[in-house]
## 1
Amino acid sequence: MTVFVLVHGGWHGGWCWRPVVEFLQARGHLVFAPSLTGLAERGHLIDAVEGPDTHVADIANLMIWEDLYDVVLVGHSYGGTIVTGVASQMPERIGRLVYLDAMVPEISGMSAAQLSTPERAAEVAAARRPDGHTDPTGFERWVSPHRIDWLKRMTGPQPGSCFGKGVSLTGRQNDVTARDYIICTYHKPSPFWRFYDQFKADPTWRTHRLDSLHDAMIEVPDQLVALLDPSD
């Protein structure tokens, strides 16, 4: 049995992992897919989020109180910054890091906006609301057309400080030596190709291509599970 902790990206919630959770559980694994503070069923706490470090605390506390070790920690999109922050605090609890079309901060305090492309950062900035939170944008690059209306109903605003503030890093995230990067090849334009290209040339990383739009856990959950659990 393997322990998986799945961390969603911006505007989403733990609900987006449901097909992946079901596939992994059917294989006999223990799986956690929490919603981060201020999102999905925790949306009423949106004003309590001080930045991505709040979301790091969400996942770190889950791992502490569930007494989890040797975790396969998976981060999607913005969730890549969160799993990096968790790894920097407790690398001894993590067996493998998996980044799914995700941001990978290497400098403490570097924000998601800084890690993105200027075009995507501007698109997100334009969706910022008067209350400081940010509405979702980019649905056509996330899922197939027949799923867009459903996804619009399921997603919600991202807490205002999450994209502008960076995650705090200690450098200990580099103690986790098993690291995978999965690029979603149908997601174009995308701020994530530069990470894939960087890690493809780095022998300390394993890189994978997944023919999917950005939300691969919704679009191709079975193919994603085959990468997450290749031993089956």
## 2
Amino acid sequence: MSAILFAKTCVAMARITLPTAAEGMLGRGKSPEIYDARLQAWAARVKAIADMRITVEGREHLSSGDTFVIMSNHQSHFDIPVIYDSLRCRIRMVGKAELFRIPLFGSAMRVTGFVEVDRHNRAQAVAALHGAEAALAAGTNIWIAPEGTRSETGKFSPFKKGGFHLALGAGARILPVSIDGTKDVLPAHSKTITPGKSVRVVISAPIDSKAFGAEGMSELMAAVRSAIAAHVPYA
């Protein structure tokens, strides 16, 4: 059963990856609205395949119409469809450069407007974050997992500073999002999908990075971490 579910999930990914990559290679990119719709449809399909029972709290914090740097903990690859299905707004993800090297998949990510960050190339990483600032200014929410990688236990890894520099540079508010349960659907470094699991998503009140300033980076990171951890019992 799990192998079938994994195959169906791969097919769902291919259904948005292949046309998007082809459009990019042919110079026929579509509007952001079309990519938004594709991402939402993909997230809904993956949710259905895994039969995830997602509950969402705090959607009222999205009602202001503001653009945010979204930060969440990172338990599983399934965090990605869960975020899209739960928040239902224009979101583009900050991803490590290794993902963008995957044939077709990387091309589709670039065409869609995802942000590539090479953790081993500081100049590229800084330039990428400047590009993300422009996307924020244009109305795109930028999602980043400040742990930088998936947790194998669910416990939080140390937060990295890149996303906080982005928020401060853009003068943007940070929207903390807590995800609990995706590690039970698809654990880190596993291909075993367990259907029917419950996933809880809590969207907390935005945190204004400008209230902390560059000199308050440590305090800002602690505030965001605390907001996310408040709804993940084993963080």
